[in-house]
Amino acid sequence: QVQLVESGGGLVQAGGSLRLSCAASGIIFSTYSMGWYRQAPGKQRELVAVITSDGSIRYTDSAKGRFTISRDNAKNTVFLQMNSLKPEDTAVYYCNAFDRYRYWGQGTQVTVSS
Question: For residue 87, which of 63, 53, 49, 113 has the smallest C-alpha distance?
């Protein structure tokens, strides 16, 4: 059974930082591309950042320079370090694993107050 469990969300003031973690089980983690997506109320889910199995990284424009995605294959975990947070970053953040199949975590709420 595949499980992706996110943690690290919460309430933070604008300009603050949070570090999200996603622990994966039930997959061969090192072969999967891992991504972070977010969905704000009334909006579609959007990609924030992705890191492939070979370490290639891509960010959405709004995340560039503020967010850093990383992975620890020994711990089957992917991270998203978020700095200089803005109120518009408020959303539910979802972990995603993609290889032949795509899996989602349950999401973690990030709220940035102004």
Answer: 113
First to last CA, the chain: 40
Q: Is 76 helix (H, G, I), strand (E, B) or coil?
A: coil
- Count Cα neighbours of 61 within 13 Å in the Cβ-side half-sphere: 0
Residue 89 DSSP SS3 = helix
Q: For the sheet containing 77-82, what is the strand order?
A: 3-7, 18-25, 77-82, 67-72
pLDDT along the chain (114 residues), means of 10: 97 98 97 98 96 97 97 98 98 96 97 96
DSSP letter, residue 72: E
DSSP states of 20-44: EEEEEESS-GGGSEEEEEEE-TTS-
Structure tokens at 66: 């503020």
Query: Cα separation of 113 and 33, whole Å?
Result: 31
Task: List Cβ neighbours of 68 (8 Å cut-off, separation of 6 or more).
Answer: 79, 80, 81, 83
Give the pLDDT confidence score for residue 38 in this predicted structure.
98
